[in-house]
Design a protein that fits this description.
single chain, alpha+beta, seven-stranded antiparallel beta sheet, 20 helices, 20 strands, disordered N terminus
Length: about 550
């Protein structure tokens, strides 16, 4: 297996040589030539040399990657170079590209069993069809404790296809024999990598240059212990960071490292059981299998089923409190509806406030009812099938679309559009009042009728006739016959407004605050400080 990683800020690339020669022989050869790297013995008489390069030149050495490959043939009966894009070997003194369909020789000579998992936060079953289509192979996954565990011995490829940035930082695990390899990925890039139980040693590391390039190269070459820093930087929900630091610093076999590591990461024990061979998740009853030929309806059914499995994995207390909160919200929604809907006058229905109330009542009631229904269906285990799926569950809609909406790009665009909407509302209000502010005439108007949504007032015009118009102004103690200070447009006397309303800046504060809030949400979403998918998964 070849592992390659490109640093995010500098073009420092990891390259791996696989040499069919004893580890001691390869170590002596690399030391004599001053090639900094990590050398590890592999079964079948192979040795691995991991080095770093910049633009085809090994860091800390005068050798090029191609020259090292050709020279290694002097000490190894077979030599190969894997740089993350191609795998090249040496034949009769010349390099050649290894066919992608060929079995890698060092893999074929390694009898140790291997297993891998791509571990993604939340439910990604809606995207498994895409993964199967890109990889060209069927994909199997299970939902455990709010995580999607994808069975794949090349987890980096699976996570790269899924674009892990849509779901927040994700993990890849690979176990071969006693060796464990762990990757932390964010936005499709490997952020950090750890190795456990891999016997090997650094050679010629003193030849690496000082400064950033040398530090980056050393991180790529050696089995690094980056500690909890990468997890903290990516906002991993750590409960006990000290426990995770100790687990990552542990040196030992996969079987001994996995239990404390998974506990510190908050991952289900099913990860350990599968990786060390105690259980085969591929044979579990709730395993989801997807092929590239799967229909959209089948994917929707799988997504709905896995959503219920995720809800079932939540604690009963959490589901109960969700139902209590939903019930309390429904009471508030009912009270709001009682205020909103009795009066459906044209002015009120066309207002911005009616729109906000309608959204709060409609969408809010749907979310609250969903929380109550899930609690009700999942309250009794006898109502669940053997795989934990409610017997009353029915296919849902658009899981894939919802995940797309929750992504960084769409969510940021939506937030920006909402900010523009708030700004436009404030600007339109300001322009509407411009004629009253700049050339309006203030008069004392008499209240004629106090309505539910507006007040009818009248005042004498300078040329004699009395003007009657409606203004959206009312106070609790306003009565017919009272006087109100009004400003009207002499060019359009029907355009009038109470002086108190004209001087009130609350509406501009509302629109401005809404615009600032939405812009802040857009920025935080774009830089992944706010992850709507993660929030949605938690709420479920």
């Amino acid at each position: 297996m070849a592992w390659a990683q490109r640093n995010r800020t500098r073009d420092v690339l990891q390259v791996t040589y696989f040499l069919h020669a004893p580890q001691a022989t390869v170590s002596a050869w690399a030391s004599d030539r001053g090639i900094p790297g990590w050398i590890e013995g592999l079964p079948g008489g192979w040795a691995l040399l991991r080095a770093a390069e910049v633009d085809g030149q090994l860091v800390g050495s005068s050798w090029s990657t191609e020259a090292v490959l050709l020279d290694s043939a002097a000490v190894a009966s077979r030599a190969f170079l894997a740089d993350g894009e191609t795998t090249r070997g040496v034949r009769e003194g010349s390099p050649f590209d290894l066919d992608d369909a060929e079995v890698l020789p060092w893999e074929a000579d390694d009898p140790r069993p291997s297993r891998g998992l791509a571990v993604v936060r939340g439910d990604v079953t809606a995207d498994l069809g895409l993964l199967a289509a890109v990889l060209g192979d069927p994909v199997a996954a299970v939902i455990r404790a709010g995580w999607t565990l994808i069975l794949d011995d090349t987890p980096q490829a699976a996570l790269a296809v899924l674009d892990s940035g849509e779901y927040g930082p994700t993990l890849g695990f690979f176990v071969r024999g006693n060796m464990l390899r762990l990757w932390l990925l964010d936005d499709g890039d490997v952020t950090a990598e750890w190795e456990f139980g891999a016997p090997g040693a650094l050679v010629a590391s003193d030849r690496l240059p000082t400064g950033e390039i040398g530090a980056l190269a050393l991180d790529l070459i050696s089995p690094t212990d980056a500690g909890v820093t990468p997890f903290l930087e990516l906002g991993w929900p750590l409960v006990h960071a000290d426990d995770l630091g100790r687990a990552l610093a542990t040196r030992g076999s996969a079987a001994s490292v996995l239990p404390p590591l998974l506990q510190a990461l908050g991952l289900p024990d099913a990860v350990r059981a599968h990786l060390i061979g105690e259980r085969d998740l591929a044979t579990e009853r709730d395993t989801i299998r997807v092929t590239s030929e799967g229909s959209g309806a089948a994917l929707t059914r799988r997504a709905t089923r896995s959503e219920w499995l995720t809800a079932a994995a939540r604690s009963p207390r959490r589901r109960t409190w969700g139902a209590i909160g939903g019930g309390a919200y429904l009471v508030g929604v009912a009270a709001l509806a009682a205020v909103l809907f009795p009066d459906l006058s044209a002015e009120w229905v066309d207002s911005f406030w009616f729109f906000l109330g309608f959204v709060a009542v409609g969408i809010g009631a749907t979310v609250a009812a969903s929380a109550i229904r899930k609690w009700w269906v999942l309250r009794d285990p006898n109502k669940l099938d053997a795989d934990g799926t409610p017997r009353t569950s029915t296919p849902g809609w658009g899981s894939r679309f919802k995940r797309w909406i929750d992504g960084r790009g769409p969510s940021s665009v939506i937030a920006v559009l909402m900010a523009l909407g708030f700004a436009a509302g404030g600007l339109m209000q300001w322009q509407s009042d411009a004629a009253l502010r700049d050339g309006g005439i203030e008069v004392s108007a008499r209240v004629v009728v106090v309505g539910d949504a507006s007040t009818s007032v009248e005042w004498p015009m300078p040329d004699g006739p009395t003007r009657t118009t409606d203004i959206k102004y009312r106070t609790p103690d306003l009565r017919p016959g009272d006087t109100v200070a009004v400003v009207y447009d002499p060019l359009d006397p029907d355009h009038a407004k109470a002086v108190d309303d004209l001087n009130d800046v609350a509406i501009y504060i509302l629109f401005g605050s809404g615009a600032v809030f939405c812009l802040l949400a857009a920025v935080l979403t774009w830089f992944r400080v706010v992850d709507w998918q993660r929030i949605g998964n938690w709420l479920r």
